[in-house]
């Protein structure tokens, strides 16, 4: 059987997300339940979640979630990690045996701090070092795959329907100020756990409904900057594009949106503000290889916030609603009503219009 | 009237119960079940909650009323009957619609009325009370689309690229349309007396359903969009 990464997998999918602007904690049960009315958007070949604020007791440490094929892969990987990090805590990620989820790999998490001596000798900042380590493991280590590497956040994913994946990982035992959830509908899959969403790097995570036509053009460009697309699932490249634009290039979320979902030239020409026209022309020109074409609706998670974005033609559905401190995003209104029956007006953002929600300043996350 | 509680039912079970019920049906606690009323004729279906995608697909004469919002692809390829939405709808409402009518009190998403068509006496009608997203009436080949833009507060009432590829049918937009960029193959002109008489029927039905004032709505100018000729894309790809 060919593994993911050796075959190309287009996907359909369901997305949902919730964030509290006050930083109030919600258990993972809320987002798990949101996936239920969208059951038919997935086909049981991938489900996953990201929770932010779930590891407050280790908030200064990187939480590495890793899949291992076997014990040897784990031991080899641990030896590699020990050379680079102080491992403060290592443990099996608790799961629940349920008939709907089978063939699980060995799933561990490590709370780690980069060794200062290694950082100094490599002359890398901490985040660049962690990102490089993740790339190294995922492209070189046999039987090991890091699927989450941020501080005070974590991704949980598996082959299965998303509501079952939430139960499998006991998400009701975690509390976060924001959550994203994804149900996958690949039309052809060898069924590997790493291929489920979210795709993450550091504290960035992406869930995606759609199919990126520009995948290979985007991949060729982003790999020039040290990223390695090991899975050939299109969403992976989008995670690295966001990391590159935000962390490396220092763009704002709005600017990054104008790169990946750039308006048509005719739309830019008709913008009333000279400054808007100039900025959009600049971004489209400089980052032309990072324009993402084809249908997508995504939710991008980061420390302290979420961003939802549609492709510029809006070829996938996505709606947004609010109630009190909470903002809800989903492929379908039914998912939002499941999280909050009394949600206010439901809004459908325009194609290419980012919806950015942040926890208000001053709240300790 | 049969009352069905949709709570916890998947779309297949709910669909079977709707089909098994004789006569009119009320569905309560609806939450995302797809294909409700698909292909149905000669009965009334009333829905409380949020019906799932493809509500009333291939509808063939039934009347569906939703007391709330609906999701994507409402009335996909419907042939006859009426769908009344008291809230807003998602993308691709009336996709490839070929008969019957859809009335939406609020807004519609992207691609409303895409590829709507008509044949002889089968002329579909879609009235959107609020605003729409981009690609309204893309590839429209027949039928009538009305966008009233109620509650727009000066904002443009349709998105970008309206009427792209339009080669039949008619679109009514409330307002003078000065802020809408139409493609070269269509003509946008102010509504004339005959147009307004035709429009009055549609607006009156909208107002009867949702309780707005016909005179107030029609007091505004309207823009009528039609394709330039029967075959505006002749020789675009091949001689046809």
What is the CATH homology-level superfamily of the domain at 88-227 in chain B?
A: Glutamate synthase, alpha subunit, C-terminal domain
Radius of gyration of chain A: 19 Å
Please give the alpha-carbon distance between the first and last residues of chain B: 52 Å
Largest sheet of chain B: 11 strands, mixed
Helix/strand class of chain A: alpha+beta
Overall domain count of chain A: 1
Secondary structure tally: strands of chain B: 11
CATH topology of the domain at 88-227 in chain B: Pectate Lyase C-like
Unreliable parts of chain B? none
Give the overall average pLDDT of chain A: 94
Summarize the amount of helix of chain A as a percent range.
25-40%
Task: Report the principal-axis shape of chain A.
Answer: globular
Largest sheet of chain A, order of strands side by side? 8-3-10-1-16-15
Order of SSEs of chain A, N→C?
EEHEEHEEHHEEHEEEEHHHHHEEEEHE
Number of helices of chain B: 3
β-strand number of chain A: 17
State the separation between the terminal residues of chain A, measured CA to CA: 43 Å
Fourth-level CATH superfamily of chain A:
Aminohydrolase, N-terminal nucleophile (Ntn) domain
Structural class by sheet pairing and helices of chain B: alpha/beta
